[in-house]
Amino acid sequence: MSAPDATDPCFLPASDLAAAYRRGSLSPVEVVDAVLDRIARHDSQMRAFITVTADLARDAARAAEVRLAAGDDGPLVGVPMAVKDNIAVAGVPTTCASAVDPGWGTEREAEAVRRVRAAGAVIVGKANLYEYAFSLTDAYPQPLNPWNAAKSSSGSSSGSAVAVAAGMAHVAIGSDTGGSGRHPASANGVVGLKGTYGRVSRSGVYPLSHSLDHVSSIGRRVADAATLLDLMSDEGVAGAPLLSRVGSGLAGMRLARATGYSTDGADPEVTAAVDDAVRVLRDLGADVEDVALPGVDLAAGILASIMLPEAAVIHRRAHRSASSALGETAVARLDLGSAIPATEYIRAQQARLAIADEFERLFDRYAAVIGPGNATRVGEAGGWISVVDGVEHDLRHTGPEYTGIYNIVGNPALVLPAGFSSEGTPIGLQIAGRWWDEATVIQIGHAFEQATPWHQRRPPIEA
Amino acid sequence: MADVDPRDEVDAVRTMAAAWGVELDDDRATQLAAALARYRSQMGRLERLDLDEREPGVADPAAGR
Questions:
Q1: Which residue of B has its CA nearest to A198?
Q2: Residue contact A350–B57, C-beta within 8 A
Q3: Which residues 6+ apart lie within 8 Å of A346 measured at CB?
């Protein structure tokens, strides 16, 4: 196998691709053709896509050429993009990766998709995911991790992350209810970003949990993920423009290094990567202190109490009449969601606000919280379990503490590459900030990215 | 506290599920009983929070517009 060429347009960051379009050194039609060719050659093995939208993409690429010729310098004009297949794109079926048809037909379009299509992005396909964003299923097997095919690509937005990592899209839209946008970004060595709760409309996004669902962005660089999130965002949302602090230094910035997880230090390779990241951030001038995060030991219970009953209501009909067609984890989660009393649901919603208040006080003292994207490196392909030093860690149990906590409290959170395990799989660093302060999170992520080499690596897949 | 026979727990969840119109086989009922036990243990930790004066805080539906 040969590694991809460093100048292969399929692997350029979206920002570099847009610059090449403006210079005239590349054209959307040739790049989209190259991406579609790559998908045709690799995706039967990678399984990143459920539906490839070649005709739609070629039409959009031609339209992008017209826009560029007219002087449109929008950052995503002509940029190939994947859309997680629980998010509606007009003219394309939405499967939610399930044998149980969500019944959405092909007319609906998500508001986030409408916005980025209007901004000139080119949709190359609908990306694979966990069934309805919460269960592994035999009907749509998990995509391959392009760094190590024996290892998990995580989820639920695994197709979106794998497409970006493997040169089959430059950016992707995902969704994130408990870490579903950030875990696969971390596992596949790309950037994943969820904004503050409510930043992006969820209209046309098949719900998993109304209280926790976020639309997320995935890219090869922090700026790419930020640009996509910015273009998806509703008008008039609070906070500074997302990219307004990129390039500003970190001198004197106070950062909290997250501790207090029930699995602190569970994976020495993850701990070492975060230790290294702290050194980099200190070298950049930040003041980093260890801080026990509030409520992380409550996150699993709160997330289950909110997400599962809401999901059980959303999937009530399929749970009763078509459970044999759903994946095993979906059925188990819907069983539990149906059994959780309303009193516990309300108590968890009360607890959510209490913990959000504690986070607000934390962010009075620190500009951001940094820490690992998960307790451990990724585990075996097609499963939920990572085994480190003979101890099993289940993503369904660790995820709520590391990523789900930011769905519970609604704060923005970013993951980006921060190293590699001895198994060749990426390790992600997570940066979380105040409500509506995505700009600071992006500033820190961009500074870290510029100071480290991890984003420059490419997976060992054929060119 | 008296020991609870795990079999009784499995029968209890099967009866509960039947009330929602879902029939659980042995495997699903056993798995649900175990999941509920783990869940109750997780939720027991919330006792340390003072939530009596809190509004429920259900998400603003407008956020999903």
A1: B63
A2: yes
A3: B56, B58
